[in-house]
Amino acid sequence: MKIVYLYESFVFLGGVERILIDKMNLLSHEADYTIYALTYNQGNHPVSYELDSRVCHIDLAVNSHLRYRYRGLKKLWDGLKRQYLLYQRLKEQLAAIAPDVIVTTTSGNLAILNNLKGRIPLVVESHEGYDHIDALGLMTWYQRMKVYIRYRQLHHCDVIVSLTENDAKKWRKRYSRVVVIPNLVHLNPTGRLSDVSQKRVIFVGRLNDQKGFPELMAVWRITHLRHPDWSLNLYGKGDNNQLDEITNGVNAYPPVSDVFVKFCESSILVVTSLWEPFGLVIPEAMSCGLPVISFEADGPNSIISDGEDGYIIRNRDIETFANRLCQLIENKEQRQEMGRKAVASSQSFSAEHILPLWKQLFESYKNSNLNI
Known about the structure:
Blueprint: E1 2-6, H1 15-29, E2 34-39, E3 56-59, H2 72-97, E4 101-105, H3 110-116, E5 122-125, H4 141-152, E6 159-162, H5 165-171, E7 178-180, E8 200-204, H6 213-226, E9 231-235, H7 240-243, E10 250-253, H8 259-264, E11 268-271, H9 281-286, E12 292-295, H10 298-303, E13 310-313, H11 318-329, H12 332-346, H13 351-366
Parallel strand pairs: 1-2, 1-4, 2-3, 4-5, 5-6, 6-7, 8-9, 8-11, 9-10, 11-12, 12-13
Helix pairs in contact: 6-11
């Protein structure tokens, strides 16, 4: 079975990039599918995570970002030319490959794919979640219009794959063909677990408003006053304005590829996102034996068992978040017990559990008996 994945580029050390690459690797190795990874803005950049040699990576060399060299009408014209170039090159590749299924994300070029796919099933993965559209209220009317026009294209796809049942319920208000398949998570490969004795709290993600960076700093200011011997270690990119907010006891580092080593050197993971369709770092950290404290959101709510392997905090309740964090800091035995349960919880997102769901979906197209 031949499956094409279309994604802009595998340049960044991001969650979606890791998920897609892990999945393509496993499908090519475990399921014995022929996998094609088509990108269009990869350029000369190396692939951010190791890609199995059996996965055929083809970059269409559209380089859409180069339109930003221009302004005004020239920028618009250059963008239109590059969209046409993408259309032509993607058309050629799809004709040459003749895939059984095409997979993309909600941020992909849905209009082009719908125009080209013909009778080929199009599977769209929702990694952003239904509620992500303008959740911060910062989009211009033009940006909102582009997003909603793009989302109208989802009516022409064959299925939307949501990460959680809560998110799927929201998609089903507008789209009839929705299934739930949680992220396939690359779990702890280090062979060891955190002993949760290190006085380190860890945060992994972009240092921006969507990830709740201002709220994180507010939580830490309270925590640091009560436990000045503990540190908060941040792994992620942020602009200078965000970095200026960093307070005492906080260490900021760039993203790392060996994040599991950092989890094993820490004792608690904190997640403060305004919205989080899944939250890849949660099961990753849990697989290293870390309890997790998170604000409520679709992803964390579906992964964390409140009071068992971590805590779910009412959205933006800074004081309660800080109190729970201090509670775990002050109780090593509780951290250890929650950490043990976290390891067990994380296994439900392993390849052993998730890969068969994808195989079932793909095979149902092959057998022409999809029933959703």
